[in-house]
């Protein structure tokens, strides 16, 4: 079975066109991301702080459930 080709029609082998487009746009406007493109980091988009031991325990629980054939149900971290 042949593997899919990584050659693109535009000559950017193995590159993601949307990433190249955003870099090109940023280079034309002083390195800043255009307002209409993507998300902007804010307090509401930061990941919640979580105790590393609690995070590890939750990951262990989810992996164990998956290994037992159960559908894991993650608990949302406390904010």
* H/E element sequence: HH
Helix fraction by DSSP (H/I, runs of at least 4): 25-40%
In round numbers, the mean pLDDT is: 76
Please compute the radius of gyration using only Cα atoms. Answer: 21 Å
Biggest sheet record: none
Low-confidence stretches: none
Could you say which structural class the secondary elements and strand pairing correspond to?
mainly alpha
What is the β-strand count? 0
Total helices: the number is: 2
Q: How many angstroms does the end-to-end distance come to? A: 49 Å
Beta-strand content: under 5%
The best one-word shape is: elongated
Topology:
Layout: H1 17-28, H2 52-67
Précis, in short:
This protein is 35% helix and 0% strand. It is mostly helical and 79 residues long.
Give the key terms.
79 residues, mainly alpha, 35% helix
Description:
- The protein is mainly alpha-helical.
- The chain is 35% helix and 0% strand.
- The chain contains two helices and no strands.
- The longest helix has 16 residues, at 52-67.
- The model has no long low-confidence stretch (mean pLDDT 76).
